[in-house]
Amino acid sequence: MQNEGAPAAILASLNALPQGGVVMVLYLLIPAIFLATTVNSAAYTLSDVASINLQPGEEPARWYLVFWGIVLTSISIILMYGDGLEALQTLSIITALPLVFIMLLMIASFMKWVHQGEKDGIHIYEGVPYDEPEEQTVEITIERGKKDKNKGKVIQKENLI
After folding, report:
1. Is 138 helix (H, G, I), strand (E, B) or coil?
2. What are the C-alpha distances in Å from 12 to residues 2, 21, 26, 131?
3. 151 or 87: whose pLDDT is higher?
4. What mean pLDDT is predicted for residues 68-72?
5. In the Cβ-directed half-sphere of 88, how many Cα atoms lie within 13 Å?
6. Distance of alpha carbon 14 from alpha carbon 25, whole angstroms
7. Mean of the pLDDT values across residues 29-50?
8. Of 125, 133, 136, 159, which is least packed with CB atoms within 10 Å of its CB?
């Protein structure tokens, strides 16, 4: 089993369990469902964002969902049958590099927001200034049944801050 690698060890372990065939089917079915829902969600998001003049609450066109689903699936297949992990690592680096600049802009924007808040008298560590709430009276009544002597009467008053 050591010569055959990790996949063979996993399959042998699953077959050794009670009801190994059922466990094996579940082991293959759950990732397939996960993959299908992930690709569907990504295709929906891409088609929704890339659609022009899409009104709020309106669904993107079905053909657009299918298009993005095919694109995402084909990219996965190409990476899987291409160089495998090396191609995936290279693609990750290439796509992540522009995000570094976006993250730097977000950090600069956050710092600017914090400094502007301090100039306006708002300190993040102290919280946002607020007005003191007015004193309120709470009336509690008991409505349990005929035997209750306090039915419908105010039994407690509290002041809330």
Report:
1. strand
2. 12, 11, 15, 67
3. 87
4. 92
5. 8
6. 10
7. 92
8. 125
